[in-house]
Amino acid sequence: MSVSQTLAGPAEFELEAKRSRFLARAAPTDSPDAALAWLQSVSDPQATHNCWAYRIGAEYRSSDDGEPGGSAGRPILAAIEGQGLDQVVVVVTRWYGGTNLGVGGLIRAYGGAAAECLRTAPRRELVPWCEAELACGFELANAVHGLLAEFGGQKLDESFATSGLRLRVRLPDYTIDSLAGRLRDISRGTASLQRIETPAP
Fold this sequence. Notes:
- Pfam families: Impact_N.
- The strands form three sheets. The protein has a five-stranded antiparallel β-sheet with strand order 2-3-6-4-5, sandwiched between helices. Strands 9-10-8-11 form a four-stranded antiparallel β-sheet, covered by helices on one side. Strands 1-7 form a two-stranded antiparallel sheet.
- It starts with a strand and ends in a 6-residue tail after the last strand.
- With 201 residues, the chain is of the alpha+beta class.
- It contains five helices and eleven strands, in the order βββαββαβαββαββαβ.
- The protein folds into two domains: 4-125, Ribosomal Protein S5, domain 2 (2-Layer Sandwich), CATH 3.30.230.30; 129-195, 2-Layer Sandwich (Alpha-Beta Plaits).
- A hairpin with a 2-residue loop joins β9 and β10 (164-172).
């Protein structure tokens, strides 16, 4: 299974080019609104430029913040894509040092600062999750809770019926078939685990 990666936490990297200072900061994010809120919180209004980009699944956006078109935001986005990361936002803040870098120099500075920031940042896997409904007899309650913990699942809701226990659970998507098999084994086919399909947006 191919698993995407994001950052494990915030990271930063600084470089200097012809006396201009470039500070790259990156963070994990899970929505465009969260990305923009983070950008607003870390951008320096006293700096010359705060250029940024984010990628969240199929959604992406970038800004040159007054630099020549394509010289800042796109190289930052290219750095995110080049590192194979998802759910990441990066801002590179520039304090002008008095010497123009030219478009090529800007691309190298913005893209280079972002790429090095991301290259050295700690990462974690982005595991897709799913929800499922689990039903079993009362006598299996302890064993089922143990299995759920073993497979990294979380109990969202629990109810009781005359036939036994019903659980709504959240678990890593790739574990659902294995967990269903283990449940069949311990219950001799009486327990069930069914994925809850979420409607398409």
